[in-house]
Design brief:
Elements: E1 2-4, E2 7-9, E3 14-16, E4 21-25, E5 31-35, H1 37-43, E6 46-51, E7 57-58, E8 63-69, E9 73-77, E10 81-87, H2 89-93, H3 97-100, E11 109-120, E12 123-124, E13 127-128, E14 132-141, E15 144-152, H4 156-163, H5 168-183
Antiparallel strand pairs: 1-2, 3-4, 4-5, 5-11, 6-8, 7-10, 8-9, 10-11, 11-14, 12-13, 14-15
Length: 186
C-alpha cells in the first residue's frame, strides 16, 4: 500500500489523481467511489454532502456530488461519463464520515460507467504514434454489457502506422484477459 503524507492509497483502488477521487470495482460492473483521505483532510470538517440524484447521468469532469467543508466547498468531479446507481445515505446524514473514514464508511456513490475517454501514445521499437484519443462506451441490453472502443488518430499516417505495427498481438491477449475477469464476476 502506498502512503503519501500519512495518507493511505490502497493498491486495489483506481485513482483519479487530478480530482482526488478513488474508484473500487464491484462485481456487477459498477464502481464505489469517494474522495481520497488526503483530499478529505484538506476539506476540514465536512458539514454537508449532496450527491447527484439516483438514476441521473453525469459527464466526465462534471460534478456527481457536492461537498461543503470547514475549509473547502466544491464538487466531486467524475473521471468518466456514467450514471448514479446508489449513494451513501449514512454520509448524507453524517457528512463527517468523509473526514473520519474516506476510504471506508465515508464512500460517496456507486456509479455505472457509460463512457470513458482518454488519450495515449503507442510506442515500440521502430514506431511511435502521435497521441490519439480512445473512447470506450458501455451499453446495457438484454442482461449483457457491450463494450465498444474507438480510437481516433490525428492523421491517416499515424493511424496506418498504428495498424501496421502489429498491435493486435498486444490487444488480443488484453481483451482475452478482460473476458476472463468479466466471466469471473458471475
Amino acid at each position: 500500500m502506498a502512503r503519501v503524507q500519512d495518507h493511505e492509497f490502497p493498491e486495489d483502488l483506481f485513482y483519479d489523481v487530478e480530482n482526488q477521487i478513488w474508484y473500487a470495482p464491484l462485481g456487477d460492473g459498477t464502481l464505489r467511489t469517494g474522495f481520497t483521505s488526503w483530499a478529505a483532510a484538506l476539506m476540514g470538517e465536512v458539514l454537508v454532502f449532496t450527491p447527484k440524484r439516483l438514476g441521473h447521468a453525469f459527464e466526465k469532469d462534471r460534478w456527481f456530488a457536492m461537498v461543503e467543508g470547514g475549509k473547502w466547498v466544491g464538487a466531486a468531479r467524475a473521471g468518466f461519463d456514467g450514471r448514479v446507481v446508489a449513494h451513501n445515505e449514512a454520509l448524507v446524514r453524517k457528512p463527517e464520515l468523509l473526514t473520519r473514514d474516506a476510504l471506508g464508511d465515508g464512500w460517496m456513490l456507486i456509479v455505472r460507467p457509460e463512457r470513458v475517454v482518454f488519450t495515449e501514445q503507442f510506442s515500440m521499437p521502430g514506431f511511435t504514434s502521435g497521441e490519439y484519443q480512445v473512447t470506450s462506451t458501455f451499453v446495457e441490453g438484454g442482461g449483457k454489457t457491450t463494450l465498444t472502443t474507438t480510437i481516433l488518430h490525428k492523421s491517416k499516417e499515424n493511424r496506418d502506422g498504428h495498424l501496421n505495427s502489429g498491435i493486435e498481438r498486444g490487444v488480443t491477449p488484453a481483451y482475452d484477459r478482460l473476458a476472463e475477469v468479466v466471466a469471473g464476476m458471475g
